[in-house]
Amino acid sequence: MSRISETFKSLAAKRSGAYIPYVCAGDPDPEFTSEMVRRLCSSGADILELGLPFSDPIADGPTVQGAMSRSLSAGFKVRDVFDLLSSLRSSGTDQPVVLMTYYNPVLRIGVESFCRQLAKAGGDAVLVVDLPLEESADLDEAAEKNGLDVIRLIAPTTTDLRMDLLLSRASGFAYVVSVAGVTGARDNLPEQAVPLLMRATAKSKLPVVLGFGISRPSHVREALSAGASGVVEGSGLISVYSGLLDKRDVALDRIEEHAKGMKKATSIRS
Fold first, then answer.
1. Would 123 be classed as within a structural domain?
2. Which of 49, 147, 172, 220 could be 22's S-S partner, Cβ–Cβ 3.0 to 4.6 Å?
3. Helices marked H in 21-159 — which ranges?
4. pLDDT tens across 160-180, in order?
């Protein structure tokens, strides 16, 4: 059983869902990222999604694009993510870490080398958002060899047959995308999110989490009520601190306060 699977099992026993914040590595610099991760973990984050900044993030909206741009402009490189993760582990970060990336950086380093370095640094899973299932055999093999889970995305446009295929080759958890579009905080969960969650949970033997648009405790409660085992928050969290980077202590305090509220909402009542 992977560390991610163990985390979901433990949370289920406590009647709690998983709060999974997305953190853009190096935004605006590695030092801020490290402190933000520490604050998130102490505030209840159960799993971390660490995003590798990329110059052409086609699946991400303006907020995440801005975070990636700040990181890249400050000189963050692909290989820096392994050093950052190793440093987080050395400083006591125990939560499972999913590395979110586009496929180009993986190819540039080499699929086997990328997975080996990720596992050595302390990573638990990889999510490659632009890699079709039909072309992921090399990644699947390298990930399994290095003890990494492979997270699959399920979108509103995913057919039942396609969903079955994705779930058959997923591990860790299944990631349901609430909209057929890019990331971004929203006032309400899209109408298709709940029916899609219900379809996925009926088919999946893995925990199912909901992402894209999660930014409020009410979203968390709605997702868990619909059968999700957890939620991923990215743009909403970035929005909390991105306008306060000239006041870092204030930004970090806001992150901590926000994360505590999101985690509190994961309590599943009878």
1. yes
2. 49
3. 30-42, 62-73, 80-90, 103-109, 111-121, 137-145
4. 999 999 999 999 999 999 865
